[in-house]
Write a structure and sequence with these properties.
four-stranded antiparallel β-sheet; disordered N terminus; mainly beta; single chain
C-alpha cells in the first residue's frame, strides 16, 4: 500500500533524538513494543559503553549456543516466544534476511521466514502467537505478519524512511503504526488483523503506547519549544477524546496493565512511577540519571516474571554520560513489595529483553548475550 504524506512532525530535533533513544530502549523490551529502525539502532549504539562486561562463558550452562549457517551472519535476537524459545535474524548476502525460532535447550533452529529485503526488526505479538517483520529498502518499508508456522497472515508496504509500530497488549489484533518520510513528516495508521483493515488515523504524535483496547498515550511536545518534559496525554480512538494524565513527564512506557512515567526531581534523579489499570500510582522509586546533550539518559529496562517485577540498569552515581565510568548494577524491583535487589554488578548500559518467567534475559545491543538471573551467569548466544 502506498501512502501519501499528510502531516508534519514539528517536535524539535533534540526531542526527536530523545524519542528515538527512548524508543530504542523499548524496542528491546520484551513487554512493551517495540519500534525499531536502523536509525533507532544507531541512536542506541551511541550510548557509551560504561564498563567492559564480565567475560561470557558456556561453562555449566544448559544453554546451547546458536550455530550460524554457512554464508549467514548473525544480525540480532528478536525477543522471546516462550521461556526456552527465542527469535533471531541472520543476513545472507547483501539483501537476504532469514528469521528463525530457536530452542535454547535443544539447540534446534527452525527457519520461519526468508525476506528478499533486509529485515530491520521482528517483534512477537503480546501473546506470542504471531510475529511482525519489518523489512525494506531506504524509502519503502514492508510490514509482514506471520504465524509461528511461518505462514504469512498479512503484508503491506508503506512509503517511508522509518516506521514505528506498537502491538496492542489488550487486543493483539490491533497495531498502531507511524511512518516517517526523510523530512520527518509522518502518517499514522491502525491495522486490524481481524479483517486485515489498514486505515489512516489522525494522531497528534507518532510515538504512542496502548493503555487499553482503544486508548493510546503520548507526550504532547511543544512545536517550537525546547522543553525536555511534556504533558502525558491519553487519546481514545473510539471517542476521539484527549485527556491530560500527567504533567512534566520526561519519559514514559507501558507494560500490559502498567503505565510507567519517569520524571526528573530537584536532585536530577529519575523518579520512576508505576500506575496500574489507569488508577492511582502503585509504587515509585528514584534512581540516578546521567546527563547528556539531550537531557538525561534513562538506562535500559524491562518487565519480567509476567509483570510482577521491573528489571532495570541503575547507575552507581550521577554524572556526565560521556565521562561516566562508574558502571551499572542490574536491579530487580518487586512491584508488589516495593523491595529490590542487585542481580548483576558492573554491567554496561545495553538493552534487555527478559523471558516470560524472568529466569533469563537477552542482553546487548544485538541481544547477543543471555543473562541467567538465577545463577548470575552471562553466556554468549552465538557460537564462535
Amino acid at each position: 500500500m502506498k501512502c501519501n504524506k499528510v502531516s508534519t512532525y514539528h517536535t524539535p530535533y533534540v526531542i526527536w533524538v530523545m524519542m528515538i533513544i527512548i524508543t530504542s530502549a523499548s524496542i528491546f523490551s520484551g513487554c512493551s513494543q517495540q519500534l525499531e529502525s536502523s536509525l533507532h539502532e544507531r541512536a542506541g549504539h551511541s550510548l557509551k559503553r560504561m564498563k567492559e562486561l564480565p567475560a561470557p562463558s558456556f561453562l555449566g550452562a544448559d544453554i546451547k549456543p546458536i550455530r550460524i549457517g554457512e554464508q549467514e551472519e548473525f544480525y540480532k535476537s528478536a525477543g522471546w516466544l516462550s521461556d526456552s524459545e527465542i527469535l533471531y535474524v541472520t543476513n545472507k548476502g547483501e539483501s537476504t534476511s532469514l528469521l528463525y525460532s530457536y530452542n535454547l535447550g535443544t539447540g534446534k533452529a527452525t527457519l520461519l521466514y526468508t525476506s528478499a529485503q533486509p529485515i530491520i526488526n521482528a517483534v512477537p505479538s503480546p501473546e506470542r502467537t504471531k510475529v511482525l517483520i519489518h523489512s525494506g529498502a531506504s524509502e519503502e518499508g514492508l510490514l509482514t505478519i506471520i504465524d509461528l508456522s511461518g505462514e504469512e497472515m498479512y503484508s503491506t508496504s508503506i512509503q517511508s524512511y522509518e516506521i514505528t509500530f506498537e502491538w496492542n497488549p489488550f487486543d493483539e489484533n490491533l497495531l498502531a503504526i507511524s511512518a516517517f518520510t526523510a523530512d520527518w513528516d509522518f502518517n499514522s495508521y491502525l491495522l486490524d488483523l481481524r479483517n486485515n483493515k489498514f486505515k489512516e488515523v489522525k494522531l497528534p504524535e507518532p510515538f504512542v503506547r496502548w493503555i487499553s483496547e482503544d486508548v493510546l498515550v503520548y507526550q504532547e511536545w511543544e512545536e517550537e519549544g525546547m522543553s525536555l518534559t511534556a504533558p502525558l496525554n491519553a487519546f481514545s480512538l473510539n471517542e476521539k477524546k484527549t485527556e491530560t494524565l500527567y504533567e512534566d513527564v520526561y519519559q514514559f512506557d507501558s507494560f500490559g496493565p502498567y503505565l510507567m512515567t519517569v520524571k526528573v526531581n530537584d536532585n536530577e534523579e529519575g523518579l520512576y512511577t508505576f500506575i496500574r489499570d489507569g488508577g492511582k500510582p502503585v509504587t515509585e522509586f528514584t534512581s540516578p540519571l546521567l546527563t547528556s546533550f539531550s537531557g538525561w539518559v534513562v538506562p535500559f529496562y524491562d518487565l519480567m516474571e509476567n509483570g510482577k517485577d521491573f528489571i532495570y540498569l541503575r547507575a552507581n552515581s550521577q554524572g556526565d554520560a560521556d565521562l561516566y565510568e562508574g558502571g551499572f548494577n542490574l536491579m530487580r524491583y518487586h512491584l508488589d513489595t516495593k523491595e529490590e535487589e542487585v542481580v548483576f554488578n558492573e554491567l554496561a548500559n545495553e538493552p534487555l529483553s527478559c523471558s516470560p518467567s524472568g529466569e533469563m534475559c537477552l542482553y546487548g545491543f544485538q541481544l547477543e548475550k543471555v543473562l541467567n538471573i538465577e545463577t548470575n551467569e552471562i553466556f554468549d548466544l552465538v557460537y564462535k
